[in-house]
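[Meeting: bench + compute handoff]

Bench side (C.D.) handed over the final construct sequence. Compute side (W.E.) agreed to return the predicted structure before the next meeting so the bench team could plan truncations. Sequence as handed over:
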Amino acid sequence: MCSDAVNHCDLWATLLDVAHAKPSAEHAQKINSPGVSYLRQLQGIPSDAQWNVEICEYGNARMIRDDRFKLIRRYPFGGIHFPDELYDLKEDPRETVNRIDDAALGEVMSAMDHQMDDFFGKYTVPGHSGLDLEHQPECTPGSPWLVAIEHQKRLATQPAEKKDKP
């Protein structure tokens, strides 16, 4: 078992490694990926951990996690803004208690926000950010942010007595 943190960007680098392919410097610059191959880990060969955090973007949500905390930032889309989340993975590995409003964790959130902002500032491809979903192609109508908008629209058109019922 391997406990190294890997990032979804590492898959591309791993596939290139498996194929013994290396993009030209020009293509590598265009790709602008932080990905690092995890082929060695798949082969059971110990390696230096490439990441001390995992950072990803899914739709209008961005997440960063380390061995202790997980921070999820959600950004408005379609007039809806879901709350952000922060979990202490040591005390709450099942992520049941959202600590986003815990003032004692303000420095943790600030450091994680800074790290995440640096990451996306360096690797976001202009015109392809999850923070600009209005201008992205729709991949699937089942995307959570689209389902949420449809749900909100249905709630807005229901009579008041139906809204109160589960």
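W.E. noted at the follow-up: The first strand starts at residue 54 and ends at 58. C.D. will use this when planning the next construct.
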